[in-house]
Amino acid sequence: MKMSDSNIKMVAPPEGVSGEGFFATTLNDVVGLARANSLWPLPFATSCCGIEFMATMASHYDLARFGMERVSFSPRQADMLLVMGTISKKMGPILRQVYEQMAEPRWVIAVGACASSGGVFDTYSVLQGIDKVIPVDVYVPGCPPRPEQIVDGVMRLQDLVKSESVRRRSSPEYQELLKSYNIK
Amino acid sequence: MSLETTEIQDKLVETFGENVFHFNQEKDIFSFEVTADKITAIVLFLKNDPTLRFHFLTDICGVHYPDNAIERQFVVVYHMHNWYENKRIKIKAFINGETPDIKTISTIFPSANWMERETWDFYGINFIGHPQLKRILNMDEMISFPMRKEFPLEDGGRTDKDDRFFGRTQSNR
Amino acid sequence: MSELLLPPEHRYAKIIQELHNEDGSELSILNLGPTHPATHGIFQNILLMDGEKILEAEPTIGYIHRAFEKIAENRPFYQITPLTDRMNYCSSPINNMGWWMTMEKLLDIEVPKRAQYLRVIAMELARITDHIICNSILGVDTGAYTGFLYVFQFREKVYEIYEEICGARLTTNMGRLGGFERDWSPKAFELLEVFLKDFPVAWKEFENLFERNRIFIDRTVNVGPITAEMAMAYGFTGPNLRAAGVDYDVRVAHPYSSYEDFEFIVPVGKSGDTYDRFCVRNAEVWESLSIIRQALDKMPEGNVFHADVPEYYLPPKEDVYTDMESLIYHFKIVMGEIPVPVAEIYHAVEGGNGELGFYLVTDGSRTPYRLHFRRPCFIYYQAYPEMIKGAMLSDAIVILSSLNVIAGELDA
């Protein structure tokens, strides 16, 4: 069967040199491509946005289309931490612990206004944005964001992942970033 | 509704005399005040009396009145409900602002357990005899009581939002 | 091992010391939550276990405490509905309407019949979505993912109706003082009709999938039963109480928003176990559908959608530009300077999980002096340790999801 007859959608190959029986490109691009299309999400759902995430995962919006079929509830196996909902100060240390348990490379999406900035809950008990305790890659606005927005946030993260250098995680800048959050 | 408010009032006055007062009908709820140290006896009476039968505790909450006289600064509000006659009542017990103590009713209604803990957490009202009076919603390390009027809503330690740019002040009005 | 982890004054330490199994096996402590995937939301339970059997449980809550009541004391009355949305986010319109009805009781506003019926429709839709979540997740927790995927798309249909009514999906901020912010569009009614036609078919199939399913029955019958006396003592209300056999329903006991005009059954269970809770919720969905149908059929003619209370209800925008009086009202309402009497109000509605009460104390200023929410979840969740005593660990998860504890409502 020719490729064109199949209805399986393939990602476009990265830039490179191709010829008879070979394809040459940079390792960065290949690794990025592989990582970006098999992100395993760890949903850290605390409140309203969690319900919208359920809608995103369910049949109507179906996040599985992006290589995220397998929701990983174990932080050890997850690549992408989706923080959905208000994180109170009581919850902050637990969120941090979950982040620390994740293996590198790891990415974080703050879904919704509460996770991004505390949202309407500018109160004594709510953490004013999860970037106070862990580094965040993508912020998704909305209270709660629509599933389309969550999907868009994930796709923006995929863009980041695709272009990320394989050496980034051992770079001094990254170490500096982790150090500023006091994460070992 | 066959259970008349006058009947409730008569029965309570007959049994507890001056410890029950300020009867009034507020919209659809019959309401009265009690002296704080009689609260368990009154709640037990309301629950077990064969005609009153207020067998369901709907709610407990506290209110803070910092401008009142010192012995009336906190009030614990009890909502009870008689499902047989479909009658709601509200009981208020004013307590001292400096030593906010009141007896627990969690021995009468198990559901009062967490509601009293919440009230302790928010206002620091001490429920004497409560089996496990500790913080429930806030962190154990917290030392102040956040729902008291003098406690600010917003976290004082935040650095990202400047009140001058938001046109906000701490005042309630 | 366990001595190392536990402070000696902890009550488990004493139990572990006292209890010795004959075969020499030890009791163990298991920390369930707060981020455990099966405890949807964030509840922590420290369990004392003998093998797979739970002996004791100690719940910790407050992981999503957002200080609703404190915020409410600092916000004008109009700005409190968005807070109520985020309390029980599975059925926001009920919370919204409950709050507006509390305000209307305070201000003695009579809402026109048509607006009341529209409210009933919105509230019953919310109840349906709430029960869809609870029952389909109960299915997921017992191992049937299909049911969830199947009925969850109907939540999307309800969201589409919400979007027609108020523009939002989940946190609806629906309604205004005295009625709705705008009339429902013909499209909303159209979508409603489609929903009423399609959903019963799917829901019937969903029911068939579970109700006589051997695995489901084995997992739920006699799991986490609670007697009527216990349930009342622990302050249960709503479907969880009705599953125990007590027919208390705020819609019947204190009818609000013209619920007395509709004929519906209050379904009750018998043993109060997980299966009964599931069935009561299922039955309530059918009743809700019937109420919506009745409300649509009895809907008064015309296009009245709010009470005629210019001092509380925003005037149409074109009047604000041309009419002095409207401009003044508009300004006062937007700035939150509406006249409010000094009073104390308690109003309760039948939320998705039980009696949702609003206790409002006003002092005549622009904000509530005190607003307390009677959150049904908070009150009945304290029975959870009692209910899982002696159950298996996997049963504890099923019991939790059958209670439908919503974290936002639990922790306020």
From TrEMBL, chain B:
This is NADH-quinone oxidoreductase subunit C. Belongs to the complex I 30 kDa subunit family. Residues 33-154 form the NADH:ubiquinone oxidoreductase 30kDa subunit domain. It is a peripheral membrane protein. It is found in: Cell membrane. Gene3D superfamilies: NADH:ubiquinone oxidoreductase, 30kDa subunit. Its main location: membrane. Keywords: Cell membrane, Membrane, NAD, Quinone, Translocase, Transport. GO terms for molecular function: NADH dehydrogenase (quinone) (non-electrogenic) activity; NADH dehydrogenase (ubiquinone) activity; quinone binding. Residues 154-173 are annotated as: Disordered. Residues 154-166 have a biased composition (Basic and acidic residues). HAMAP family: NDH1_NuoC. It catalyses: a quinone + NADH + 5 H(+)(in) = a quinol + NAD(+) + 4 H(+)(out). GO terms for cellular component: plasma membrane. Pfam families: Complex1_30kDa (PF00329). Its EC number is 7.1.1.-. It comes from the Bacteria. NDH-1 is composed of 14 different subunits. Subunits NuoB, C, D, E, F, and G constitute the peripheral sector of the complex. NDH-1 shuttles electrons from NADH, via FMN and iron-sulfur (Fe-S) centers, to quinones in the respiratory chain. The immediate electron acceptor for the enzyme in this species is believed to be a menaquinone. Couples the redox reaction to proton translocation (for every two electrons transferred, four hydrogen ions are translocated across the cytoplasmic membrane), and thus conserves the redox energy in a proton gradient. It comes from Flavobacterium franklandianum. The keyword Membrane applies.
UniProtKB/TrEMBL annotation, chain C:
Residues 141-411 form the NADH-quinone oxidoreductase subunit D domain. GO terms for molecular function: NAD binding; NADH dehydrogenase (quinone) (non-electrogenic) activity; quinone binding. It is a peripheral membrane protein. Keywords: Cell membrane, Membrane, NAD, Oxidoreductase, Quinone, Translocase, Transport. It comes from the Bacteria. It catalyses: a quinone + NADH + 5 H(+)(in) = a quinol + NAD(+) + 4 H(+)(out). HAMAP family: NDH1_NuoD. NDH-1 shuttles electrons from NADH, via FMN and iron-sulfur (Fe-S) centers, to quinones in the respiratory chain. The immediate electron acceptor for the enzyme in this species is believed to be a menaquinone. Couples the redox reaction to proton translocation (for every two electrons transferred, four hydrogen ions are translocated across the cytoplasmic membrane), and thus conserves the redox energy in a proton gradient. NDH-1 shuttles electrons from NADH, via FMN and iron-sulfur (Fe-S) centers, to quinones in the respiratory chain. The immediate electron acceptor for the enzyme in this species is believed to be ubiquinone. Couples the redox reaction to proton translocation (for every two electrons transferred, four hydrogen ions are translocated across the cytoplasmic membrane), and thus conserves the redox energy in a proton gradient. This is NADH-quinone oxidoreductase subunit D. The lineage of its organism: Bacteria, Pseudomonadati, Bacteroidota, Flavobacteriia, Flavobacteriales. The gene is nuoD.
